[in-house]
Amino acid sequence: MALAVVITLLIIGSLIFHFVSPWWFTPIASNWTSIDDTINLTFIVTGIVFVLINSFLVYCVVKFRYKEGERAHYEPENKKLEVGLTAITSIGVIAMLAPGLFVWANFVDVPDDAIEVEVVGQQWRWSYRYPGDDEVFGSTDVSHMTDENPFGINPEDPNGQDDVVVYDDGLRLLKGRPVKLLLRAKDVLHNFTVAQFRVKMDMVPGMVTYLWLEPTVTGEYDILCEELCGIGHYAMRGRVIVEEEPAYSNWLAEQTTFAQTVRENTADINTGRALYAVCASCHGQEGEGNEALNAPRLAGMSSWYMESQINKYKNGMRGAHEEDVYGRQMVPMAATLANEAAVKNVAAYIASMADTTVTETIAGNIENGRRLYTTCGACHGKQGQGIWSTDAPRLAGQNDWYLARQLSNFKNEIRGYHSSDATGKQMLLLSKMLKQESAINDVVAYINTLQP
Amino acid sequence: MAFVALADRDNDAHLHDPETFITKYVWSQDHKVIAIQYGVVSIFVGLIALALSVMMRLQLAFPESFSFITPNDYYQFVTMHGMIMVVYLLTALFLGGFGNYLIPLMCGARDMVFPYLNMLSFWTYFLSVIILLASFFVPGGPTGAGWTLYPPQTILPGTPGNELGILLMLLSLAVFIVAFTMGGLNYVTTILQARCRGMTLMRMPLSIWGIFTATVLGLLAFPALLVSAIMMLFDLLLGTSFFMPAILSMGEMPDYQGGTPILFQHLFWFFGHPEVYIVALPAFGIVSDILSVHARKNIFGYRMMVWAIVGIGALSFVVWAHHMYVSGMNPYFGFFFATTTLIIAIPTAIKVYNWVLTLWKGNIRLKVPMLFSIGFIFTFTHGGLTGLFLGNVTVDLPLSDTYFVIGHFHMVMGVSPVLVLFAAIYHWYPKMTGKMYNVPMAKAHFWLTFVSAYSLYLPMHYLGILGVPRRYFAYGGAEFIPASAQSLNVGITMASIVLATVQLLFIINLIWALKNGKPSGDNPWEATTLEWQTPETPPKHGNWGPELPEVYRWAYDYSVPGAKLDYIPQNEPHHGQGSVESDSDDAVDETKV
Amino acid sequence: MSMWTLSVALVCALIVWAVLVRYLMAQPWLPAGDPGNLDDITAVDQPAKKVGLYSFLGAISSMFILFITAYLMRMDPKHGADWFSIPKPGILWINTLLLVYSSISMQHAKSVAAQPGQVNLKRGLLIGGLFAFLFIAGQLWAWETLHGSVHFHLSNPALAFFYLLTGVHAIHLLGGLYVWGRVTSRVFNNARPESVALSIELCTTYWHYLLLVWLVLFGILLLT
Questions:
Q1: What SS3 state is found at A213?
Q2: Amino acid C192: pLDDT
């Protein structure tokens, strides 16, 4: 009896959970309402079957429970009943499958007026490319990929020159216009998913996959990677912004083309040295850093990292939080670098500085730090040497007090919280793995032992 | 066709009666001992995998509390939990454990036909487990690539255990496949060749049908895993490019070009989908028999059940790419695989109907194995129905790679087969040991397991509908996931802790009953199948005493009208048949029904 | 190329079904002899080892078919722009002849196994085994030839597959030679003919099977 009661309760409980629970589809923001319809249809059919079968199960358990001296009915099979049930099941299956196949045919077949946008996945970030005025993408190859050409666009290909490359911002789509997303991965499998769009597709290195949709609601949505792609998988976040005209076209026009990024890639170290004079007052003539002034060591840092951080200070993505006391000091300093060229020049000069040594100020449990650092090493390198393709700066040889402060800033969401700061957000998510206060000291103490 | 009446091969049997402790319990060639060895080892690794899953749940519910779990660890837990549960627990326990125990006993054989190979099979399996566990202790730890081991990430930096961990994983799988093949050849050959007189194919209990079909699937499908493991080892150790395309990894370009990761996925799922049925079919068979025994009624639609098992087995080879709808393979495959996948739902549904119809008009004794079996019908119905979502290519689009998938396959391939394993252990424990376990404790084990497992996996489906992705270490920063989802995660974790803890009741009960259990008698459930008719309980080496049994009827003569008892053993002759004098009351005219 | 795997799987399924369907109609609840209880199958009247060997051949056939499928899929020009056909060492032709002769010799051994006077049997077994060893040596030679040539780039999948396929085949032949060694030593220790006849028969079956596999593999390697 208890069994019958419990199963009845579970059936009713499941139904209540289904109808009452607040966890349901996010509001749809694309044309794929037909997918939701198919799911709802499947819910109705399977829900009825679930209730019927299990109610009958309960009925049998109650009605035919053991009675001393009774005999079960002897009936090896009942062809009529079995054929009937098979037929009903087949009808139910066809009712669910047929609409599904129609919608899939629609998904496979991209409308002719769809605009093409490329989404590139890599460990563990997103970047985007628009074909530019000629509406043709330049060809790409892994062999062209460098920190200055992260998309691997073939520099010789005329089609690629006007390609709009979006490395640090989100993906923008035009409301009401079908878009075909060409999906490419640089290293391992990834998967492009926006819950509100309903559709998703894996990105496979060595080939280009696609999906299409028509955004129907303006707004900002999360892009998640949904194919396990390594330690940073869960921190591989992006965002998509659906806009109307003219905001969309205006934004697109502001973006840099591939040809522009190539042109701007010449930095002048001598100009940079002159600009560095301002920096030197805190960070030191040799870039050796100054703990008293809370200025970290700069010597040994790569130019791509210095550029991206200075730009973040300039654009309000770093040092803007009111609790970020020392970050705020840096904002007016960064503002003295008037333009992109100045940033590049000073970054190039810093990158040319000779390595300096720092003194250790933090002690911690190095063994525990080593264990924790396994995760950090996935991006920053086993020796903390820094890896450009994961946007991970060098850690080895950095001032430990600076590392500890930044880790705690990330963890407390003082740094990396800005919606356009994709790499900062990654660190924000990952720093949460340092769950105890002592963990920060442990991992920094371990980094102190690393030799780049 | 060389199918003829069975010549009694009993004289050919070479039984080497064991003498010492070592030959009896360690290097044993007795199928029953080997079955228990398989059982103990697989349950042991299963407990490790269970502990790993609890750690994963702790992290998900309390992302800021457990400092010993880093993303690196988490992905290792995910991977090892999945791989151990699917391969080293479920496959090994159903086939190595129950296949070994039941085949000779249910078929009326003295042992497996190749006892020495059978022993080798177990020790090879043991070796594969050792290699697997060794990966926890090598630098870098075990692989964290997910149990699907998808390249390229599996062998690249950025994935835990991408050097030694994955090497040991692939070696362990290869060794496991060798072990499985040795065992599998034994099971197939024993079933085909060593059945006793009168045990025709259609008189075999459904347990044997399920195990047989699953073993055939395994013999044909495990090679796909072996092939992909060997090719991946080449890519890993020799730098070939079978699966590895040209890539940029950690700022460097490894010397790979042109390989196709999707080829691996095809090979993996050509193994992986039949693998689902390698686990499910023995469960289907076993639960059919248990339901029939305790409902005191023949299994409803036996022939349909056999056809369904064989049909599902055959179809399971043409549905694999439903795991790959969003993998980037040619999208037109979606039409074909969605169709085949939903077709396979039909025989599966028939099985469910027939289980319930077996209870219908039965005389149901709610013994412990029966509770688990009815629990199985409930969870399997749920898991089977959610499969209709994921098998339908369009519906899979939003749900793929979310918690819906986790909920679905745990319900259908985790909870359901495990409930059958418990049912089977409680059902055959008296035969294996001659002792009866503590029934109230076993019932408590059922209630807590059943309810906590369902409340663990049901809510996961709804997280999936919301869009919560699987294989995430933490969910912070995704705006569409409301804070309430985190409370749901806490609830799920609580259920998982209950579920994991109550398994202690099971372990304690089995160990306790070994010594203190009441004697169970030869046939405590009054069952018809041959294993309950052995002269001794537990059966001695050689199973049958001086004479092999002879079978006169199918496995489901329960509540036959006119018979004296409500069951007639398979080795009981019809009136006027066979050498044994039968009680005239038992002999009835069954053709009338 | 998945379609090729698919058709293989479908054909296998159909064969199984066609073999079984006649028997699966039996109504087992009826007493034996009742017309409704059709000609149901009792146990297979063949030695267990034979049934076991055929099951094993089924399993490794699955493996070889999958290797070949992977080979053909990897060749697909969609991914396989890096596929460069390699010249096949001429010695492979000689090796093929060796394996054919080895198989013939084993067949001869099998046919005389039951006869009195074991000279022919011993000769057949020895030649069969010797030629199989020579075949493996020849394959190693082919490996060495390629290793020393300009074509040796493991990143070329055509070359990698050549090593993989020939290697897997050779390992299976070595496994056969282990059994062959045991049988042969029993024959030379004057075991009774009837006690070794079955082992020789099964060895021969395995030899023919591996010859067949080699011919298929060699054909595919030559064609591509």
A1: strand
A2: 81
